[in-house]
Design brief:
32 strands; six-stranded mixed β-sheet; 42% helix; 27 helices; 1000 residues
Length: 1000
């Protein structure tokens, strides 16, 4: 053997496993853990900075506990069932063809058996734990809910059982049924696979081993007991079921279905006993008979018998049979939606349809407050006149509020000048500008609601940068708003200079800058240390946070800045109103939000979709006002008023409805989150108002439930109402929104800030005439810690069933088809101008119902913003159309309405007050109502002549248009050309006469 020859006993060294794979796996795992940790810990920092850490820990703790419980119950039950079935398998499988066919499956599964018996239960446990954790609020309410003090009409059980306990019991029973079924499936499959259960074979051969029989019998008995519990709970849940005419248990339910559910529950318990008997005695005959009996009973007792009762006992006498249960439904619905007799005062109102001279004398306060600015239309005017720079913006729908101006409460249209990064040019967009320079908006802009400025522009009483006007001194910087950037970095060490743009200013080299005082005010989590920089760089996906010098030891990061989003996070139990509105309160701009507690478990109450009830023309067109989420509820309360400070983002929740049992439960769950009403300042109280979405839901219910004293009438449905479609929307049929107005209802001593809506008859072929008028006192008062006694009081005016008062649709048609109005609108809309008609307001004044609609004019191309040019007024069949509301009212009411509107004496061209007001009996308008008032001695001869020539010119223009259309239809182009010439001449004459009137 040579020296180089390998020894026969020498083996080549084994290949060393590469460490790259395990290293990559470990690093990947660490990265995933860190990414999750970054998301979790930044949430902790956010909640802790706001002072709501308890909310986060309570929710996460409850979710975690339910996840663990759900995981352990599901995984443990399934794993235990599989393990017992495998361990109790027969040592020798029966020698049958069936078992021989199963051998190949047993051999295939055996290498993976341990993995399957571990992974299967774990996967099912994860799904079960995730599902259980979603029920955290249900469990918390069940643990902290208390009695309501009212009982249901069927069983006499306190309503707290339905609101709190029943949902949790149904969850537990459903969850355990799923666990039992999955455990049974696993046991059945394992026993069959390993010979403990067989299907084929001779009749005398046992089909199960003793262990399999006991196992499956116990599972079957548990399942039957859970089915019995489910049947028993159905007896209570049936009180919230939807019926053909109404919600809740009807005659058939009470006399047939509920007894059937109890009987089926008893049968299920009996079948459970038979399964136990099988486990002891060894025969499957009894449980099989029991299951068959239960199926037959479910068909006969649970299906056929109720159908017979409905067909032969209820249907022939349905109205009388259902009357007591309809009454239950009415009572429960009125209480659940807070529209009972204590909240709603119903008054017959025989509205006049004939306008009489001086009819508005008793409604002077309402008339003076009629709002002319449509907050959904005038946003472009705010932008053009008060935007200042492109990186500022206003929402597309503004807000209506009231402020004390010179000692008088006045309705105003208000908006916040927010920051909009999309307004920056491309060369201005970079990380430094987006994140550290352009960090906040600046100031509020407010205009009077009942008058206008020069050429129909809004008359601002708070405007400009720096902000000036009647509001007084306040902190104008808007760091938190509906259009704020995703995140900003604020704060800097002393002496490092100011780099946050405050506002443009020519006197300060182009701009005034500021630095958020992070040493004094906390607006967001600190990002001044390396760890926080790192986790927020991961959260925001932005490495600049790690390397920028502007992220320093004094820096704070502002994110989740939308007011509604902030409230939703700190109060996850609330459904939030679709509108967030600003107010200047105690020297700060705050966002105000209404929160609702809801339930779908109120016995006998009508169920409604929040999305359907709150969708209207406003939510369809607006990007800032939204309908509520598609949630079905049968109980709702405005339980919380929330504010978000626009400067530091601080969220304050006030427990508004302390009698709400659901809010009481949440106060126990989060005892430190809510502040009492007694802490509300007088200035904040003065800006709290009745919420729109709650009012929309309530008006939807009142359309049916105003007939609350007559079950027979409810059953027939002949007096149901509906909310009219918005006539200003021509592209779709969508409900008219409610409007905030200062008005005086017939039974009130003085006008108050209110929210109103109208009703017309329900039905596809119903006339568009008014049947009802609803207004709620929306003013909470101005006393610190004390809510006005009238706040939330609803007043419903019921018009006679043969009413001829035009509804919004009819009134819009009257306006549109009036020859004089139509002709002048065509004049205004000629050329490069387009006419925009604003919200159609309805007011109960003059013994009838008055319609007011502002008419705006804007450019058809280029820069477009609406300016108020005319006002349409309707009362019965009378129509007024003039440059000012005051003049239009005089036209309608025989030359003298009896009072002054808010724009009385205002020159529509200059926007200034002429100081003359509206002299009774004097028509100062240039409009031409259908009923033109007779000239009075105070009319000058020149004005009278100009008015006559204007009337004549408009009539000639209208006739020329009709002649031209007729000629065009006949193909007579010569006649059409002649008609067009006459039209041009008539329009020129009308414009000249109108100009003469405007200068007179």
């Amino acid at each position: 053997m040579t020296q180089d020859s390998p020894s026969p006993t020498t083996r080549p060294a084994g290949r060393r496993r590469s460490p790259i794979g395990p290293t990559i796996a470990v690093l990947g795992g660490l990265v995933v853990v860190f990414l999750l940790l970054a998301q979790v810990w930044t949430e902790v920092l956010w909640y802790d900075q706001l002072g709501f850490a308890q909310v986060l820990w309570t929710e996460w703790g409850t979710r975690a506990a339910l996840f663990v419980a759900g995981f352990l119950i599901m995984a443990g039950a399934v794993a235990g069932s599989l393990s017992f079935a495998y361990r109790s398998r027969p040592v020798y499988a029966p020698s049958t063809q069936e078992q021989a066919n199963l051998d190949q499956y047993r051999e295939a599964i055996e290498p993976l058996r341990k993995l399957v018996m571990i992974v299967g239960p774990v996967v099912l446990g994860l799904f079960a734990g995730a599902a259980a954790s979603q029920q955290w609020s249900t469990v918390q309410l069940a643990l902290h809910g208390s009695s309501v003090g009212q009982v249901d009409p069927q069983y006499g059980i306190d309503l707290g059982f339905y609101l709190f306990s029943l949902p949790a019991l149904r969850f537990v029973v459903s969850f355990l049924m799923a666990v039992t079924i999955l455990s049974g499936i696993g046991a059945l499959a394992t026993h069959y696979l390993y010979g403990g259960l067989r299907i084929g074979g001779g009749s005398g051969t046992p089909r199960t081993t003793r262990a399999a029989r006991v196992h499956l019998s116990v599972v079957g008995a548990v399942l039957m007991l859970l089915i019995a519990a489910n049947y028993w709970l159905d007896r209570y849940s049936i009180l919230t079921k939807a019926g053909e005419k109404f919600e809740g248990a009807a005659f058939t339910d009470v006399h047939a279905v509920i007894p059937a559910k109890a009987m089926l529950a008893g049968i299920a318990v009996f079948v459970a006993v038979t399964f136990i008997w099988t486990a002891i005695r060894g025969t499957w005959r009894l449980p099989l008979i029991g299951v068959g009996l239960m199926v037959l009973a479910a068909i006969a007792v649970g299906g056929i018998y109720p159908a017979i009762v409905q067909r032969f006992q209820v249907a022939p006498n349905q109205q009388d049979a259902e009357a007591p249960f309809i009454e239950r439904n009415i009572d429960a619905t009125l209480d659940a939606y807070d529209i009972d007799a204590q909240s709603v005062t119903t008054t017959p109102y025989d509205a006049k349809v004939t306008a009489e001279t001086g009819a508005l004398r008793a409604d002077a306060e309402t008339t003076a407050s009629i709002r002319l600015l449509d907050p959904q239309i005038v946003s472009p005017s705010f932008k053009q006149l008060e935007q200042i720079r492109a990186f500022y913006n206003f929402p597309d729908t503004l807000s209506v509020d009231r402020y004390d101006v010179d000692g008088e409460s006045r309705d105003t249209v208000i908006a916040v000048r927010e920051l909009d990064l999309d307004g920056l040019s491309n060369d201005q967009r970079n990380w430094t500008n987006d994140t550290t320079v352009y960090t906040h908006g600046y100031g509020v802009v407010a205009a009077y609601g009942n008058t206008t400025g020069a050429r129909g522009a809004p008359e601002f009483w708070e405007s400009g940068i720096p902000s000036t006007g009647g509001i007084g001194e306040y902190e104008p910087r808007i760091y938190f708003g509906q259009q704020s950037p995703d995140y900003s970095i604020v704060g800097a060490p002393e002496g490092s200079g100011n780099w946050e743009l405050d506002y443009p200013d020519d006197a300060s080299n182009g701009a005034v800058n500021t630095t958020f005082p992070t040493s004094e005010v906390s607006a967001g989590p600190s990002i001044g240390n390396l760890w926080n920089k790192l986790i927020y760089a991961v959260k925001m996906g932005d490495e600049q946070l790690l390397f920028s010098d502007r992220v320093n030891s004094d820096s704070q990061i502002l994110y989740d800045r939308d007011p509604a989003e902030r409230v939703a996070k700190v109060a996850p139990y609330l459904t939030l109103d679709g509108r967030v509105y600003p107010a200047v309160v105690d020297g700060r701009v705050v966002w105000m939000i209404d929160g609702y507690t809801t339930s779908d478990q109120y016995p006998y109450s009508a169920s409604r979709s929040l999305e359907d009830a709150t969708t209207d023309s406003l939510t369809v067109q607006s990007t800032t006002v939204e309908a509520l989420a598609p949630e079905m509820v049968n109980y709702i309360r405005n339980s919380v008023k929330a504010t978000v400070d626009a400067y530091d983002g601080h969220v304050t929740l006030y427990a508004w409805d302390t009698e709400d049992p659901i809010l009481q439960a949440w106060q126990k769950i989060f005892p430190t989150s809510l502040h009492p009403v007694s802490e509300i300042s007088s200035e904040l109280m003065s800006h709290i108002r009745y919420p729109e979405d709650l009012f929309k839901v309530q008006r939807t219910l009142l359309g049916r439930y105003h007939v609350n004293d007559d079950p027979a009438q409810f059953f027939s449905g002949n007096d149901f109402w509906t909310t009219p479609d918005d006539p200003t929307i021509t592209t779709a049929s969508v409900a008219q929104p409610p409007y905030y107005l200062t008005l005086q209802m017939p039974d009130q001593d003085e006008a108050t800030f209110s929210l109103m809506s109208t009703f017309i008859p329900a039905g596809g072929n119903a006339r568009n005439v008014l049947t009802g008028y609803l207004a709620v006192d929306a003013d909470a008062g101005s006393t610190a810690g004390q809510v006005s006694e009238d706040y939330g009081k609803m007043r419903l005016l019921e018009l006679p069933r043969d009413s001829t008062v035009p509804g919004p649709g009819q009134q819009n048609n009257n306006f549109t088809t009036d020859p004089t109005v139509s002709t002048e609108l065509n004049i205004l809309g000629r050329g490069d101008s387009s006419v925009v008609r604003g919200n159609l307001l309805t007011l109960p004044v003059g013994g009838g119902l008055l319609y007011v609609q502002p008419v705006y004019l804007q450019s058809s191309t280029g820069t477009q913003f609406p300016l108020l040019q005319r006002v349409l007024v309707g009362f019965g069949d009378s129509i007024g159309f003039a440059p000012t509301l005051d003049e239009a009212l005089d036209q309608v009411f025989g030359g003298d309405s009896g009072t002054d509107a808010g724009d009385a004496g205002t020159n529509p061209d200059t926007g200034t007050d002429t100081g003359t007001g509206t002299d009774p009996g004097t028509d100062t308008g240039t409009g031409t109502g259908t009923e033109t008032p007779a000239p009075t001695p105070t009319d000058s001869p020149a004005a009278d002549d100009a008015r006559t020539r204007l009337q004549t010119a408009l009539q000639e223009a209208n006739q020329a248009m009709q002649d031209g259309q007729a000629a065009l239809a006949d193909g007579d182009f010569a006649a059409y050309g002649a008609a067009q010439d006459r039209l041009d001449q008539a329009l020129a004459d009308a414009i000249a006469a109108e100009a003469e009137l405007g200068g007179s």
